[in-house]
């Protein structure tokens, strides 16, 4: 996968997958305000561990209701959405900064290097170091 393809995948396709399920909110449609609140909470807390109780408290609904509503409107669970947000942040930092992979890992909310590398590779089909080498060429 080229860097351009990885960037394209990360920027839009990673957070908003094709809506093939009729229960999902189309990309341009408005979302339930509770889902919007949950997304804003996730985006503003990427750097730290987020518990499901914090997320449901922020959205003002039960965990099971938030999970169902979130998945029906985004196509993914809140946890998967958070992982994708974190990977997008990591990809951006690797491409645009001179921060070490360890510093980027922390900024993206990971405390385990193996989990970080595993998620990055699953998202972009290359390790963070490989991605950085390809970006700098």
Strand content: under 5%
The CATH architecture name reads Orthogonal Bundle
Q: Which structural class matches the secondary elements?
A: mainly alpha
Number of discrete helical segments: 8
Helical percentage: 55-70%
Largest sheet: none
One letter per element, helices H and strands E, the order comes to HHHHHHHH
Regions with little confidence, pLDDT below 50 for 5+ residues: 1-23
What is the H level of CATH, i.e. the homologous superfamily?
Answer: Homeodomain-like
Protein architecture, described:
It contains eight helices and no strands. The protein has 137 residues and is mostly helical. The chain has one domain (3-136): Orthogonal Bundle (Arc Repressor Mutant, subunit A), CATH 1.10.10. It is elongated. The model is unreliable at 1-23 (pLDDT under 50).
Index terms:
137 residues; Arc Repressor Mutant, subunit A; single chain; mainly alpha
SSE blueprint and pairings:
Elements: H1 3-13, H2 33-44, H3 52-59, H4 63-74, H5 78-96, H6 101-107, H7 113-124, H8 128-136
Helix pairs in contact: 2-3, 2-5, 5-6, 5-8
Quick take:
With 137 residues, the chain is mainly alpha-helical.
